Amino acid sequence: MQDLINFLQHPGLTHFLILSGLLFSFGIFAILTRRNAIMVLMGVELVLNAANINFVAFSRYVTTSLDGHVVAIFVIILAAAEAAIALAIILNIYQNFNTVNVDEINKLKD
Known about the structure:
It is a single chain. α2 (13-33) packs antiparallel against α3 and α3 (37-63) packs antiparallel against α4 (67-97). The protein is mainly alpha-helical. It is elongated, with a radius of gyration of 19 Å. It contains 4 helices and no strands. The chain has a single domain (2-97), classed as Helix Hairpins. The termini are far apart.
């Protein structure tokens, strides 16, 4: 019992990898099962956040350098740009088709 308490009180690489795996799984589940385009984007954000947790955790516990932190900052910048562009595309799709359901958007304009 004492080993379990020590394991939970002192987070290590394993804790972060488990958290990252859960976030990644939830993100993939959201991407594959949701029809709403905004929910799909939220799933993509979860996947990117899971990757960030991995970068920072491995940087902290394996290499003890700041390389993972720098890569995580670039991923955050990429996610912000992706979110802005994707929301603009979704607003344009809603304006043209009056829906954000990705199953109903099956035709392109000439």
